[in-house]
Predict the structure.
Amino acid sequence: DPSGPFVLPGRYTARLTVKGGGSSAPSESETPIEVRSDPLVPMSEGDYRGLYDMRVSTSRLQATVQAAVRTAEQLKDQITDVKTALKSNTAPDTVSKQADAVEKELNDILKKLRGDPEAEVTSDDKRVEDPSIQERVNNVAEEIGNVTSQPTELQRSTLTLATSDLQREVGRINALLQRRIPALNAALDAAKIPWT
């Protein structure tokens, strides 16, 4: 099953390199490949380029969403450890409030990025909430992945809005990483609370 955007029509060279065993040098084989456009699909070179570019940018956006989700999940795990440490140690109330506030913000960020797995389920097995950034990006990626037509204006505007929403959430994550998490760590250190 191929992954990633299809290549544009054109001439390519496929190269296969096989590592040699022991001290022998690797062997390499090349073959030319010509990818032709489907004659039954009325798309110009510019149309193919536009579709290809959108597929590539959507794939990159998916990777950025995944990185943001992973970072937020790691921070959430860190806050869980902090809250566990706070339960078994005496700390000023302000430290607990800081941890609670960071956890609340992370929950909101994760809900916007990937959706709320605990949202109410309706009869058609859908959640009652707006689609997450990840859902919107993945839906467009799926819609344009195997088609031979130009992306629709709705798909383009969906990606534009999802990109803007993602930038906002990444900004919130960065603010947590640059200011609020270090401040919380400093407060934990000052209260002599071991949490790692």
DSSP finds four helices and two strands in the chain. The longest helix spans residues 45-87. Residues 47 and 163 are 23 Å apart (CA to CA). The longest strand covers residues 10-18.
